[in-house]
Amino acid sequence: MPDTTLTSDHSHDEPSAGAYDDASGYYTLGEPIADTKAPAGDIADRWQTRKFEARLVNPANRRKLSIIIVGTGLAGGAAAATLGEAGYNVKSFCYQDSPRRAHSIAAQGGINAAKNYKEDGDSTHRLFYDTVKGGDYRSRESNVYRLAEVSTNIIDQCVAQGVPFAREYGGLLDNRSFGGVQVSRTFYARGQTGQQLLIGAYQAMERQVKLGTVTEYTRHEMLEVIVADGQARGIIARDMVTGAIETHLADVVVLASGGYGNVFYLSTNAMGSNVTAAWRAHRKGAYMANPCYTQIHPTCIPVSGDHQSKLTLMSESLRNDGRIWVPKKAEDCAKDPRDIPEEDRDYYLERIYPSFGNLVPRDIASRQAKNMCDEGRGVGPMVGDFRRGVYLDFKDAIARLGKDAIEEKYDNLLDMYERITGENPYEVPMRIYPAVHYVMGGLWVDYDLQSSIKGLFVTGEANFSDHGANRLGASALMQGLADGYFVLPHTIRDYLSDGPFEEIGEDHPAVTEARADVEARIEKFLSINGSRSVDSFHRELGHIMWEYCGMERTAEGLRKAIDMIRELKREFWSDLKVLGTADSLNQSLEKAGRVADFIELGELMCIDALNRRESCGGHFRGESQTEDGEALRHDDEFAYVAAWEWGGDAASNDMGTPILHKEDLVYTAIEMKQRSYK
Questions:
Q1: What is the CATH number of domain 297-437?
Q2: What is the pLDDT of residue 385?
Q3: Cα(561)–Cα(557) distance, integer angstroms
Q4: Tell me, what is one Gene Ontology molecular-function annotation carried by this entry (predicted)?
Q5: Looking at 9-113, which runs of residues are DSSP E strands?
Q6: pTM score, two decimals?
């Protein structure tokens, strides 16, 4: 590795960020890459330019082309509906029993759009700026501007579908604020925004199912991507009910399979959420970009014990009216919060960040909550050696607006909190603590959303493209619907204009090889016959990831984590116990494949975090912080997308040495500067 130098200062006595390569020996440096599809010119004109330049497919030819879409959340469902309506032949796959159970349904607080209905200074450019700044200047400006530009179309589309957004007394759509912004641009449907938006996309897709342009495959899990002659041409899927291994071929494949937060075991994700579709593509040549960028959500119900398998999200929208605090004195932490007088409460976000207060971005709010608990001022029951919680208090909002107004805004969220905790949040402050939620990393894509494998497109949370090192609240739904309704349908046609492609059959060598790999992998899981359950390996992996690659990372901790994960992988492949058979419903077998991929992903996440010796957004390196404990970037050294190529033998369980390709981040419309919310 070449020697590097860095001019930025940081507050610790360790060597500066560029004095040496922390990850030397863990990876190989590959050739730099670039996004060749993004147009040049004024940023406000780039998307229109690309749409015009993208070649067309006439309606008669569309009927000859086939598209596989893996995932039926907002990105996948919207894409299936739109591409089906355009006349393509679409196959839609999900592992749930209905597309309506996709994890997008769990999103609560809202969806951003630069409508400026509140006349408070919002605009496309401000949404663009807020998103790039919120991502700590580690996102592509062309992609982010496009996202902001099409955001306004999303709301009109969803209203036309009948999505019941909240409205003001005069009938106009209402807005509220989310973290990292000073305007109100978030449209919402109580605390059920994801559910309502998903129903809209689902209805649009089901219309195409009825018309015959979309074919649904529920309870099917993608286990391999078929790459023939350098192009993605299909998938191998397992019927999760019968166990049958099926081959599905097409002209192009779209992955809309969501994020990989469950690598931490405890997260706000549904237990079925996994990385297998993306990771199988990675092993076939698709680059994995910025895998270490993980979002820790600041408002989740705290862990209550070792029995839990997931955590519950409390919408960030609660921070509009709830005030976050901890006792000023550690001896007050065990008291009933109602008995702690105002002068003994530390509203720490309002104190540290007076301009944004409780609406600072998620990474900052999460890290400060951790800091308060690490100081011994956490609240709630003892879990291990710590009280892991801070208060989110609606007392002042109820006094100002009345209980009825708070109930109208948040009743389903507050009712859910009471059902889970047994505490009435109208009377006692809520207790919250950060938890793994979203991932900004994902498969590398160009401006067209095409991965490094030709014909493999990636949308929504499964790709890395729009959020940088931290996602602003209410932007996940925006990206999913933007990709599905308004971006992919324009960009995928440029690729499909070369079709129809030469047909391949199930006897094609690439198809038979992919199918044989899947069958051999399943047989391997069943034949190990060890003593440990899949869940025990997953829980251990999650503990390693949270402790050493969670809210704060250090070189020492990351190296330790890599060693522990490698040892865990050896034990997994020698002592795993999978009950049942392959030719039936077998959830233990399903989990085995997912956890095997999580283990490999976890190792790459730690290597990526070790290589990036800077703090940015959700990636906080203890060695790189300012004197007052804020994240310290090193733009002269790390202003790039880290795109990782699989470095192992595709047929083995050895990850080998991953290859790092750097894509330089260049800003022409925004000045790259140290982020501040004070």
A1: 3.90.700.10
A2: 80
A3: 6
A4: succinate dehydrogenase (quinone) activity
A5: 28-29, 66-70, 89-93, 111-112
A6: 0.95
pLDDT of residue 668: 95
Residue 585's CB is within 10 A of a number of other CB atoms, namely: 14
Q: What does the alpha-carbon distance between residue 334 and residue 424 come to, in Å, rounded to a whole number?
A: 18
Q: Which residues of 150-178 are buried (b: 16+ CB within 10 A; e: fewer)?
A: bbeebbebbeebebebbeeeeeeebbbbb
- List Cβ neighbours of 183 (8 Å cut-off, separation of 6 or more): 116, 118, 120, 121, 122, 126, 177
**Which amino acid is it at 90?**
V
AA letter at 264? F
Report the alpha-carbon distance of residue 539 to residue 545 in Å, rounded: 10
- CATH architecture for the domain at 39-293+440-669: 3-Layer(bba) Sandwich (3.50)
Q: Where are the domains of the chain?
A: 39-293+440-669, 297-437
pLDDT value at residue 11: 37
Whole-angstrom Cα Rg for the chain: 24
- Evaluate whether 501 touches 251 at the Cβ level (below 8 Å): yes
State whether residue 450 is helix, strand or coil: strand
In terms of Cβ atoms closer than 10 Å to its own Cβ (0-12, 13-18, 19+), residue 410 is: buried
Q: Quote the pLDDT of residue 3.
A: 36
Sequence length of the chain is 678
DSSP letters along 230-270, please? TEEEEEEEEETTT--EEEEE-SEEEE-----GGGGSSSSS-
Which residue is it, tokens 């290597």? 607
The secondary structure of residue 73, as a DSSP letter, is S
pLDDT for the residue 19: 54
Residue 413 CA from chain centroid, whole number: 22
Tokens of 672: 């790259």
Phi/psi of residue 237, each to 5°? -125, 155
d(CA 225, CA 249): 10
Q: Which residues of the chain have pLDDT under 50?
A: 1-18
Question: Distance (Å, rounded) from C-alpha 91 to C-alpha 66?
Answer: 8
- Determine the Cα–Cα distance for residues 276 and 248; give it in Å rounded to an integer: 17
Distance from C-alpha of 497 to C-alpha of 56, rounded to nearest angstrom: 6
Cα distances (angstroms) measured from residue 93 to each of 10, 195, 234, 403, 582: 48, 19, 12, 44, 20
The set of catalytic residues is: 362
